[in-house]
Target: Polyprenyl synthetase family protein
Amino acid sequence: MQRRPSAHVREGSHDAPAHALGADPDQDTAAVIGTLLARYLTQRREEAARSSEQFAKDVIDLLVDVVLRGGKRTRPAFLWWSWRGCGGESGGANAEAVLKVATALELLQACALIHDDLMDGSPSRRGAPSAHVAFADRHRAAGLRGDAESFGASAAVLAGDLALVWADDLFQSAGLDAKARRAAASPWQAMRTEIIAGQYLDLYGQSTGVDSPEESLRVAYLKSGLYTVERPLHLGAAMAGAGPDLIASLRRAGRSAGVAFQLRNDLTGVFGGSGSAGEPAGEDIKDGASTYLVAIALQRARAHSRHEAERQLRDAMGNTELAPEDLRQVRDLLTALGAADAVEARIEQLTADALTALEQARLQSPADERLPALVRRVARRHPGS
Model:
């Protein structure tokens, strides 16, 4: 496969000492990303506080909590191991610039989580109140005028917007030279639009009750698969100067692995398990999300003339008042109709496709082992699911 020399940071920079990142990114990528996130957020908070301590205390501190509380740093890991697999260095200024771009992905993720929770009315995230709920609680506690829920929703929109703005700021200031920035600009730009497109299609699907398995897979790909796996792999390879064939192989792998990741989240979002990203099991049903899991169940119910099962599923979708017993019945239906097993089979096939594409890419060591392991991790069955 064609490879080019790895990108360099801007002229005049010097290699950063390994300890500046707090850990070796090959050994603990998540720890390095955590260090860079904390450093960047501290800097931006100090800047903002000079203009308004109220804004910093209320909005930025909540955003910092969302970003730093939990999270497996999956997207940065995919970017990093793509960079390494395409010949990128493990340390020095080049690597630090790439890691800053990887860190920006976590701010994009924060934007998506805050806005998604608001649109879905989710009460919690990663063991704490969702941003809009936290803002509403603060409004009530302070005895402010007006409606607390409206205030919470508006403040959450602003917090999510701020995360998006800061993600772009961090990308622009990461330290890549002109060539590397040009190579990364197109996937970065496309990814930001794709995230919003996926969120809108998810919202639209909830409103229309779309139950096509094919359409639900398209939403899963746009809403999560692209920016979770495919675009991070694309960014890492582009910054390393990879040729078009290598980038194409990585994108094929990312496309399959990204959809597998979202299908796994769909399962854990209904059946529970450690992979549910902190949201309570059953929220997808209450939200009326048009997931592949539900679409397959409805398709099978129609195919086998199980009209009562189809009616029960449709009645449950979007019903925010569902009791735990109702959710248990929905899970039983999804299992009895074979939908859960069908999703597991699709995840297995997608994972195999991703691993085949990675093998064809012939990545450099140690990424040739670490990237396949990462794909298996995001697609695997979680305990309790």
